[in-house]
Give the backbone structure.
Amino acid sequence: MTFEEKYKILGTKNTQYDGIFFTAVKSTGIFCHPSCRARVPLIKNVIFYDTIQAALENGYRPCKICKPVEKIGQTPENIKRIISELLQNPHEKISDEDLKAKNIEPHTIRRWFKKNYQMTFHSFQRMLRINYAFNHIRDGKSVTHAAFECGYASLSGFNESYRSIFGESAGKSKNKSLINVLRFSSPIGSIIACATEKGVCFLGFVGQKRLEAQFSALQKHLNAIILPGKNPHLSQVKQEINEYFAGERKDFSVALDIIGTDFRKQVWQSLLQIPYGKTVSYKAQALAINNIKAVRAVASANGANKISLIIPCHRVIGSNGSLTGYAGGLQKKQWLLNFEKENSNQPVQQVLNL
Ligand SMILES: [Zn+2]
């Protein structure tokens, strides 16, 4: 991006570039995210930096309004505590009064859930309870037992809730499976991950294109429902992705549940062969699967990749070196390629500790 292109983004409140570059202001000595709500600085006072380190090293202080050194999309401490409390006791109900007693403004938490989980705080709690009940039923417990165990006062209330989520009654859904979802932060935006019992089946960025379509396809294909809940593959993938962004991990070992046609699976397998810090062209990738005529089909399979970062579709570029496409946005693709390149020939960098 040119200086002018970056400057044009300031003041538009577009968060897509947060973490991609930082705006430092010579007259105030402060640096910001491009989406900062503060007044747009005069063009002559602006310097752009690609990293927080560079802005700090040049003597700039983080802005108190947009807080650029805090990870983007990071879960606030008090919300983190509420989520972990609910995961420990899924049958617990947290009311507005409980929140106020904990010094949390109910309005703030509702807005946060709506933005980050695309559901209300109330439905998040309801879904956790249903998830808990679902596992009880599948373990062979009775529907009545499950309903009372997860805090429903009446069986009919439970059945109604259950049906509204699963589309069928609790007694019928023993054959249905579950996809768990977890959201966590990264330096280039919030990440959303899904996993089945077998492994991670989705990893992408909050706000990426076609996210909802991908989710409905997954649910349909696996005859499953996506709910927040505990899943060992999700804890592992969060850990590994954090290590990746800290520059400490170049290969992933978390189990994957890869869903797609045989051709697409073959294409994704070939993506897994591209080493960290390297790029290949679509043409080279088609050659790698012995199907030079399939360049277009290869490109479209890459676009349909459901497990970003781990299946590294960001490492495929056009034959002329152009970035072509990326579900998370081209800025993220460029960021990832630069990051891997800088990181690949060096000893592991010291992680910035602020
Ligand atoms: Zn700011």
User: Anything to note?
Assistant: Residues 32, 36, 38, 63, 65-66 surround zinc ion (CB under 6 Å). The longest helix spans residues 121-138.
